[in-house]
Design a protein that fits this description.
InterPro entries: AAA+_ATPase, ABC_transporter-like_ATP-bd, ABC_transporter-like_CS, ACT-like_dom_sf, MetN_ABC, MetN_ABC_transporter-like, NIL_domain, P-loop_NTPase. Belongs to the ABC transporter superfamily. This is Methionine ABC transporter ATP-binding protein. It contains twelve helices and 14 strands. The protein has 344 residues and is of the alpha/beta class. It folds into two domains: 244 residues, P-loop containing nucleotide triphosphate hydrolases (Rossmann fold), CATH 3.40.50.300; 96 residues, 2-Layer Sandwich (Alpha-Beta Plaits). The strands form three sheets. A six-stranded mixed beta sheet has the order 6-7-8-3-9-10, sandwiched between helices. A four-stranded antiparallel beta sheet has the order 2-1-4-5, with helices on one face. Strands 12-13-11-14 form a four-stranded antiparallel beta sheet. Bound molecules: adenosine-5'-triphosphate (ATP). Adenosine-5'-triphosphate binds next to strand 2 and helix 1.
Amino acid sequence: MVRFENIAKTYPAYRGKPGVKALQNVDFAIPRGSITGVIGRSGAGKSSLVRLINGLEKPSAGRVIVDNRDISALTGRELRLAQRSIGMIFQHFNLLSSRTAADNIALPLEIAGWSKADIRARVTELLALVGIADKHDRYPSELSGGQKQRVGIARALATRPSVLLSDEATSALDPQTTRAILDLLANINRELGVTIVLITHEMSVVRQLAREVVVLDAGRVVESGHVADIFTHPKHPITQSFLSEVTGDSLPVSLASRIVQEPGRHAVIRVQVRGAGAGDTLVARLARELGLDVSLLSARIDEIGGQHVGALVLGIPGGDGAAARALAWLSQHQLSAERLGYVA
Ligand SMILES: Nc1ncnc2c1ncn2[C@@H]1O[C@H](COP(=O)(O)OP(=O)(O)OP(=O)(O)O)[C@@H](O)[C@H]1O
């Protein structure tokens, strides 16, 4: 378990640059065995948060508890020992180019003072766990990005940590490789029970892997909870904007270019769809109950944590009166909707 107790992190002013309040009033817990996504824009404080978990930085106020120990109070040998129970993987893998895959994985074990025979056995086991048993003697330059990240994951797990920190670990990978690496992390979480903390600016990564999410903005936690709850009822604008990246609130170019603000033949209304089955019969019911030939101009519905999340864009004929009736009907049914304009 990782617990942030009223954390603040301020980087002091130096050489004429002002001090930076990177984190303020951060107070939340990451449950043992969970996969928790920490999402935020660049500069939100994600890396600062990670460096507090593995003790690379000390908080300016508050405590960081990892497995019942206050890691922020540890120094020297005690800190180094505690750090063995916290593995980390990186965006650019951070492998040593002069060492083979096996020798990269062996490194933390050598540092921890394991015997040669134990290291050999553990490395073989880890290479198999991450699915690259045949790459034992390959150098990083001979591996693909996905394979390099598998070496990174094996190295991070070598000393059997209880927590695995992933700092944008899939940001440099293509979508297919990203999916494979996220699947591997899900298996590792399931089979080894390792708590995974995923730092990312990509909503798709949180959606695919995390069960809990913490949204950071300007150094503060603005929302946190179960992924399905947060994504079906996003409250903070920053969460809504992350969500629109995966739910396609942005319109297809062919439709966006046709929308004008002068009244036209169809009013264009966008309806947010949130919750199990919410969008299933919406268009049919709206058309039937209002007696209108409603057209579906664009639709995107994703499933996040078993809930439907997305947006439908509807064309409503019959002038402003009909559009107003449609908006009133949607509002009566607790659906959030807005008029985007008109199409001819
Ligand atoms: N060592 C440092 N010294 C001074 N300021 C720092 C230091 N590290 C981070 N900051 C500042 O703290 C704030 C938070 O940075 P941080 O790197 O934690 O954010 P981030 O969310 O990880 O961003 P990114 O996604 O761009 O890596 C930023 O304003 C950054 O400039």
